[in-house]
Automatic annotation (TrEMBL):
One of its GO terms (biological process) is L-arginine biosynthetic process. GO terms for molecular function: L-glutamate N-acetyltransferase activity; L-glutamate N-acetyltransferase activity, acting on acetyl-L-ornithine as donor. The keyword Iron does not apply. Pfam families: ArgJ. Keywords: Amino-acid biosynthesis, Arginine biosynthesis, Multifunctional enzyme. It comes from the Eukaryota. PANTHER family: ARGININE BIOSYNTHESIS BIFUNCTIONAL PROTEIN ARGJ, ARGININE BIOSYNTHESIS BIFUNCTIONAL PROTEIN ARGJ, MITOCHONDRIAL. This is Uncharacterized protein.
C-alpha cells in the first residue's frame, strides 16, 4: 500500500494512506524551528488536558512520524502521586527509516 507523505528535511514524515494526503509539503527544519515559539505561545494553560486529549495528541504525533512503519506507536498514562495528577505520554518511531538494516522484517 502506497501512502502520501510530507517531505521533511530529515526524511519522509507524514500521513498514512488512510489520511489521503494528496498535496505533499516540504517542511524545512529551519522554518519549523523558527515557528516553535509561535506554536508554544499559542498553547493555553486555561484548557485542561484530559487523558483522552493526551491519547489523541500522542496518536497524531505517532502517525505524523510514520514513514514505512506499518503501525503508529504511542502511549499515554495518568496517575496520582501525593495528591498530584501526573500525566505522561510517549511515541516511538520504527527503526526502518532510521537505518534500514535495523528493521526486523
Amino acid at each position: 500500500m502506497v501512502s502520501s507523505r510530507r517531505k521533511c528535511s530529515k526524511g519522509l514524515f507524514g500521513a498514512s494512506a488512510l489520511m489521503k494526503l494528496h498535496n505533499p509539503v516540504k517542511v524545512l527544519q529551519k522554518e519549523l524551528l523558527q515557528e516553535l515559539p509561535t506554536l508554544v505561545n499559542s498553547m493555553s494553560d486555561s484548557v485542561p488536558f484530559s487523558l483522552i486529549s493526551l491519547i489523541y495528541m500522542a496518536v497524531s504525533v505517532a502517525t505524523a512520524i510514520t514513514t514505512t512503519d506499518l503501525v503508529s506507536k504511542s502511549v499515554a498514562v495518568e496517575s496520582h502521586v501525593g495528591g498530584t495528577t501526573i500525566r505522561v505520554g510517549g511515541v516511538a518511531k520504527g527503526s526502518g527509516m532510521i537505518h534500514p538494516s535495523m528493521a526486523t522484517s
